Amino acid sequence: MTGIDGKVVAITGAGSGIGEASALLLASRGAKLVLGARRSDRLEALVARIEANGGTAVWTTTDVRRRGDLADLVAYACRHYGALDVLVSNAGVGPISPFDELRVEDWDQMIDVNFRGVLYGIAAALPVFRKQSRGQFVNVVSTAGLRIVPNQAVYAATKNAVRTVSEGLRQEAGPDLRVTMISPGYVATEFADSVTSPTVKSQAPAVDFALSPDDIARAVAFAIEQPSNVDVGDIVVRPTAQS
């Protein structure tokens, strides 16, 4: 199957930002969506919006820190639509901070959501993809892993861990599966809301050149719509003004 129309796509972190924008764009191009996030009210409203515009979507509450939730997300897709073509692992948090603040719980949260959540998604979807002899993983990473800066080391480490796993998975995937990494730069999302460090909040620079989540959604769509023998490995999408 090529293109987007008719493909079954599951998205984590679909309640806002890049996940929400990707859902809206893919639905407009005919994808059948299974949306997962922790905030059920956001998902319900998003599905209603998609359906009002003629799209097809269902939702299930999903906390990527729980392996069972990812298994349920994939199982729901297979049960409702009979297949799963793409898993977009988009859920992420970024409570960045200086090491000296020793915010170990924040470190754990980033590891659990940003890295372990992707692994749980792979564990849930890979057997389905193997059985179907088709499937695509789209893992949302970050340019933070490409240029390490103060306060973001743990966050960048989780994203680079996903980068490493994605490349290893690509090499093991064989000719029937595809693995794509999307690396956004500055994007106007709720990312800053997860920051708990007073130091980081006080030092945060004003960024007036951030991309829209829609810009990243188009990159997700581009990777998915390629012919089945074309594996788009890594797309970096950053504002032209970002250093």
Biggest sheet strand order reads 3-2-1-4-5-6-7
Q: How many distinct beta strands?
A: 7
Q: Quote the beta fraction.
A: 15-25%
Average pLDDT confidence is: 95
What is the terminal-to-terminal distance? 38 Å
What is the overall number of helices? 7
Protein structure class: alpha/beta
Largest β sheet strand count, sense and barrel closure: 7 strands, parallel
Helix content: 40-55%
Low-pLDDT residue spans: none
What is the C-alpha radius of gyration, as a whole number of Å? Answer: 17 Å
**Overall spatial form:** globular
- Element string (H = helix, E = strand): EHEHEHEHEHEHHE
Explain the overall architecture.
This protein is α/β, with parallel strands linked by helices and 243 residues long. Helices cover 45% and strands 16% of the residues. A seven-stranded parallel beta sheet has the order 3-2-1-4-5-6-7, with helices on both faces. Strand 1, helix 1 and strand 2 form a beta-alpha-beta unit. The longest helix has 29 residues.
